Amino acid sequence: MADQDRSNARSAKLRRCYASLVAGQGAAADPRIEAAFAAVPREPFSGPGPWSILAANVWRFRDRGPLYVTTPDDDPAFLYQDVLIALDAKRRINIGQPSLHALCLDALAPLPGETVIQIGAGSGYYTALLAHLVGVEGRIHGLEIDPVLAARAAHNLTPWPWAQVEARSGMTEKLPAADAIYVNAGTPRPARAWIRALRPGGRLLFPLQPMHGRGGMLLVHRSASRTAWPARFVSRAIFMPLQGMPEKDSAKLAKAFARQPLPPIRSIRFDKPRDASCWYDSRGWWLSTRDP
Predict the structure, then answer these.
(1) Nearest of 153, 161, 148 to residue 125 by alpha carbon
(2) Antiparallel, parallel or unpaired: β 52-61 and 163-166
(3) With a cut of 50, which residues of the chain have pLDDT below it?
(4) Cβ partners under 8 Å of residue 284, min gap 6
(5) At the top level of CATH, which class does the domain 3-288 belong to?
(6) Gyration radius (Cα) of the chain, Å
């Protein structure tokens, strides 16, 4: 067996174990999630090793940033663990934690043939997983505001030509109609463009969080109602803040999330007045613990 063949066989073996690990850690019920993690190699999206790995979300000091550990060499076994891989450690840009994304992708449930928008494509790893899940009849629109990362993602996604990445903001109003929108940048409110782009029955999953601090992955289903849609928190989460999102109400949202645990949210509402079921209210929308 040639060296490249041996390397590919080893990578596939590592991915199978890794996929089982992260799908289990992420409590993914859909077997397609594990299959996607097993099918998509992580090496092209991580770049050449050695790699910097975020050390279990350990923070030394707030002003010094997160603690990274450098792998001793470029053995791909280091990539196939439930770890965050730095794309730019100085700017704290990472390929996010696989088990969290397994949980989120399971909740978002991208189906074959669907159109999905991803906000914050990074180097394209989770874009490729989305492409695997929707298949060749589907369509992935990845948006990445950093032009260098966007170009890198576009190159990495060559094997999935139905996945395209554009170097632009995810805040734009000019978004295609989508069955699902997956946001990988933290924001204190959903952008109007996302709400408008959702098709009837579409799903939006985004990290609702203050500009500094942890929040939660909020899953929203668009219904026929104009005043209330089903919504729930999937998990606690913290992402890099979405560029261009105003910081208004961020401190108010931080206080809401300071209460433990995550509340049993059942709907996002656009009506007035707020009632006793309101957990958090903002301009033009609020989260309620009652059914829509």
Answers:
(1) 153
(2) unpaired
(3) 58-62
(4) 270
(5) alpha beta
(6) 19
